[in-house]
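A quick aside before the break. I want you to see a complete sequence-to-structure record at least once, exactly as it would be stored in a machine-readable document. Don't worry about memorizing anything.
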Amino acid sequence: MTSAKDGLPPLREVIRQHGLSARKSLGQNFLLDLNLTERIARAAEPLAEVTVFEVGPGPGGLTRALLPLGAARVIAVERDERAIAALEEIAAHYPGRLEIVAADALTFDPRPQLDGRSARSSPICPTTSPPPSWCHGSSVEPWPPCTFPRS
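That is the input. The structure line, written in tokens, reads:
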């Protein structure tokens, strides 16, 4: 079974296939409604030639909305190793446009991947994390402004 929007399996099926479940300790909440993730992604338009830095994509709900809407590249930083295989399936569907980084966004610095170009940060952030230190003074611009809880 595939999703009508992008030709990939429905997110519920992806989550089941990979044995994923949202973990509160990681601040996870999986968005399963591709119509909702598309609305969120549309808030970033225009996306042509834009690199999006996505923190904690999980099984890739927002990722699957950003790529068909024209994001030139998505750098997805995911610390939950369980979600990497699901993201690799998306990367195979969009060759050369999804870079998966298995790391903690609090310690990962995206600037080397950006080669001096600017990027937009994902509006959906894990709810248990303060903003990474590279957010301040970097070339990653939020859209709409992503609010991080204070620790």
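Two observations worth writing down. The chain has a mean pLDDT of 76. The chain has five helices and five strands. We'll return to this after the break.
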